[in-house]
Write a structure and sequence with these properties.
single chain; Serine Threonine Protein Phosphatase 5, Tetratricopeptide repeat
Length: 428
C-alpha cells in the first residue's frame, strides 16, 4: 500500500512531468526502497519523450525491471504494455495504448501527456486535438496540472490551424504558470503561423533573458528565434544564434542536433553563397554515430539530410536501407522526401522538385510540427526555381504554407518566381 509520502512524491512528479521539469535523479534514486512504481513509469515516459536511443534503452530497462515483479494492477499493466510498444518503435500502437488508458481512467494526467506527445511524434494533429480537448474537461479547475494541460491544448489547436483559440489557451496556461515553457512554445508557433516574425523574436528574447542551459526546450526555442531572424534576413544574428544558442548542447550525445540540421539547411537555401562547410562537417561528426542507432523516422530524416549535405552518400544510403528494413511500412511520400533531399545535394534539381512537390503535403508522416516540416516545402520551391520550372514553383507557392506571409526572404522568393515567369518560354 502506498504511504502518504509516496503519494506526495507521485503527485509532485506528475506535475513535473507535464511541465517538462521531471527530476530524473530523484526518480532514479535508490534507498531502502525503490521509488514508487508510478514514478518509475513517469521516468520511462519522460525518457522516451526525448526520442534518443540511449534514453529509449534506459526506459526499456525500467520497464523490464518492473515486469519482473509481475504487477497485477490493471492500470500499471496497461501502461507497461503501451511502454513496450514505444520502446520497440511502434509509436502508433503506443499512442493507442495510452489513449485507451485515458479513456478508461479519466484524469490520468500521465497518460494524457504521453498520448499527446506520441501524437506529435507520429504527426497525427487531428487526434492530438480530439484527445486533449476531451481530456481537459475532466480535471478540476484547481488541479495542479490543469494549467499545463491548457498548454498542451493550445499547441494542439495551433497545429490544426485554430490560431485564435490556441492563443486563448496559451494565455490561460501562462496566467496560471508564467514559467510554462510548453505553453510559451505553443504561443511562439502561433506567432510563426501568423507571420509575426519581429514580435516572435522579441517574445523569445524576453522569455529567455536570464535563463540558463537547464531551461527545458532551450535549444528548440532558440531554433524558433533563429527562424524568425532568418525570414527577416538577419543572417549574422542567425549564425550567432546557431553557434551560441543551438550548438551549445545540454549533453554531448543528443538529438538536439535536429534543430541544428534544418537551420543550417534553411540557411544554405536562403543564402547559398555562405560557406557553411565547417558547420556541416562538425554537425556530421555528431550525427555519424546515429547510423548505428536509427529507430525514429523524424530523427532519421535529419541524419539523412546531414549525410547528404556533406557528401557522405554511403552513410545516407545505408541509413535509408535501415529505415526501409525496420519492418514498419514507410509511406511512399516519405521515401520521395528522403530521395528528393539527396537529389538536391547532387544538383539534380528537377528530380528533387518533382519528388518534393508531390510529397510535401504528406510530410506529417515523419512527425514533428508544421513549422519543422516547412523545410520540405521550402526545399521543393527552391529546387523548382533552380531547375527553371516556373509552373511547378508556382504550384508549390500557391498550395503551400510558408508563402502566406511577407518578409525580406520570402519577398526575394516572390521576385525570383516573377523573374522566372517572365523568362520562361511561351507555350505554343
Amino acid at each position: 500500500m502506498e504511504k502518504p509520502s509516496d503519494m506526495e512524491f507521485v503527485e509532485s512528479a506528475t506535475v513535473q512531468l507535464v511541465s517538462m521539469k521531471l527530476d530524473h535523479e530523484r526518480c532514479r534514486r535508490s534507498g531502502p526502497s525503490a521509488p514508487p512504481v508510478a514514478v518509475q513509469l513517469m521516468l520511462a515516459v519522460d525518457l522516451l519523450c526525448s526520442m534518443e536511443h540511449p534514453a529509449v534503452m534506459e526506459a526499456a530497462a525500467i520497464r523490464a525491471s518492473l515486469m519482473e515483479s509481475a504487477p497485477t494492477e490493471a492500470r500499471t499493466t496497461a501502461m507497461l504494455s503501451a511502454l513496450g510498444f514505444w520502446t520497440t518503435g511502434d509509436l502508433a500502437a503506443a499512442r493507442n495504448g495510452f489513449q485507451t488508458l485515458v479513456d478508461t481512467y479519466p484524469g490520468d494526467a500521465v497518460s494524457v501527456f504521453a498520448a499527446h506527445m506520441l501524437d506529435f511524434f507520429i504527426g497525427d494533429a487531428p487526434h492530438m486535438l480530439t484527445s486533449i480537448a476531451r481530456a481537459v474537461t475532466v480535471f478540476a479547475p484547481d488541479d495542479p496540472v490543469i494549467g499545463y494541460l491548457h498548454g498542451l491544448h493550445g499547441f494542439a489547436l495551433e497545429e490544426n490551424g485554430l490560431i485564435e483559440s490556441a492563443v486563448e489557451r496559451c494565455r490561460a496556461a501562462l496566467e496560471r504558470n508564467p514559467d510554462d515553457v510548453y505553453a510559451m512554445h505553443a504561443m511562439v508557433h502561433c506567432l510563426y503561423e501568423t507571420g509575426r516574425h519581429e514580435e516572435g523574436s522579441r517574445y523569445i528574447r524576453d522569455y529567455m533573458r536570464g535563463r540558463d542551459a537547464s531551461t527545458p526546450m532551450r535549444i528548440h526555442i532558440w531554433w524558433h528565434y533563429a527562424l524568425f531572424e532568418l525570414y527577416a534576413d538577419n543572417i549574422q544574428e542567425v549564425l550567432a544564434c546557431y553557434r551560441i544558442g543551438i550548438r551549445r548542447k545540454t549533453s554531448l550525445r543528443s538529438a538536439e542536433d535536429l534543430d541544428a540540421a534544418t537551420l543550417l539547411w534553411r540557411l544554405a537555401l536562403v543564402r547559398p553563397s555562405l560557406d557553411l562547410s565547417a558547420y556541416w562537417r562538425s554537425l556530421f561528426q555528431d550525427w555519424k554515430p546515429y547510423l548505428e542507432e536509427s529507430w525514429y523516422l523524424f530523427n532519421d530524416f535529419h541524419a539523412y539530410l546531414t549525410y547528404c549535405q556533406v557528401g557522405e552518400y554511403g552513410c545516407a544510403d545505408s541509413l535509408l536501407e535501415t529505415v526501409l528494413a525496420r519492418g514498419k511500412e514507410v509511406p511512399e511520400e516519405m521515401v520521395d522526401i528522403f530521395l528528393g533531399f539527396r537529389s538536391f545535394t547532387t544538383g539534380d534539381y528537377a528530380d528533387a522538385a518533382a519528388r518534393l512537390a508531390g510529397s510535401f503535403h504528406r510530410s506529417f508522416a515523419m512527425g514533428g510540427s508544421n513549422a519543422q516540416r516547412d523545410v520540405v516545402e521550402l526545399t521543393a520551391i527552391e529546387a523548382a526555381l533552380r531547375c527553371g520550372d516556373h509552373e511547378l514553383a508556382q504550384r508549390i507557392r500557391a498550395s503551400g504554407r510558408i508563402f502566406r506571409h511577407r518578409g525580406p526572404v520570402l519577398d526575394e522568393y516572390e521576385a525570383r518566381l516573377a523573374a522566372l515567369r517572365t523568362s520562361a518560354p511561351a507555350h505554343p
